[in-house]
Predict the structure of Helicase ATP-binding domain-containing protein.
Amino acid sequence: MVAKKMGHNDNPVVIVVSPLVALMEDQVKEATEMGITAMQLGVHDEVDITSGRCQLLFGSPESWLLNKKWRDMLGSDVFQANVMGIVVDEVHLTYKWGQAAKGQTPFRESFAEVGRT
């Protein structure tokens, strides 16, 4: 909203990487109640999402990193022109969730890859 008011962009989008579906659902609901257009990958209409018709776009690390459709979307002209920032929700846990003890699988392996993309 700040970028739009400052004239930087007609349709600014903020990407939100979030670990929990329930958390994303609550945040989309609250943002909508505040008049902010918010959508969630895999829940809202794909055409609306890919055309950048939202101000906040929520998705799990797995959705952003493992689904080629969503990764490619971020490289599209619409998103290259409109993404104003990326927020990693629960960032204080990402390093832990992406790691595992020797011989074990990480709890959320994709969190270890968030910074590499």
Q: What stands out?
A: The beta strands are 13-17, 38-40, 56-59, 83-88. The first strand starts at residue 13 and ends at 17.
